From TrEMBL:
The chain crosses the membrane at residues 129-147. This is Fibronectin type-III domain-containing protein. Keywords: Glycoprotein, Membrane, Secreted, Transmembrane, Transmembrane helix. It comes from Electrophorus electricus (Electric eel). It is a single-pass membrane protein.
Amino acid sequence: MTPLDRPAAPVNISVNHLRAHSAMVSWNVLEGEAVIGFAISQQRQDGLTQRFIREVNTTSRACVLWDLNENTDYIIQVQSIGLHGESQASKRVHFRTLEKADHFQSIMAQGDPSVEGLDISRRLQTGEMLIIMTVLLLWAAVIALFCRQYDIIKDNDSNNHSKDKTKPLSVYSTPDYHSGSLTGSKRTVSSVSIIKV
């Protein structure tokens, strides 16, 4: 196996979608290279940890680095894997992960990374927040209107019941049963006169 059988080193290495504990590395390969995979060397700049990632039988030109330490400097190099071996390592690329506070600010400032195969929770954009707020306000208005209508109906119902209770008894009873009424005394007199005859 000669060096000519190996693919050329990847080019245009870039690190984007930086987070507190992750980052995405992407690269290009030269046109016409028979590349079947990649290998990534990742290490902290202080030399405390080092990791190797190797993938074969893939045409991917990007890889997400997980379990990074926040606010930490890293160095990466990428190699192409061909049918007859690996390429030379690419140029060293330095990057620094975000702090958690910076991570949340970057979430608000930019959209999600569209990384295939990643289960990253979707964040609400400004337009979606406006729609949600509008719907909530409409619901609040409908509920307030319903409560007001319910109070009006309840007040009307209680007023009708109180009017029924205060109606004079003459509506429900005949004058014959009113004590001390004029008609009642006349009948008493007439009945007495009948007894005398």
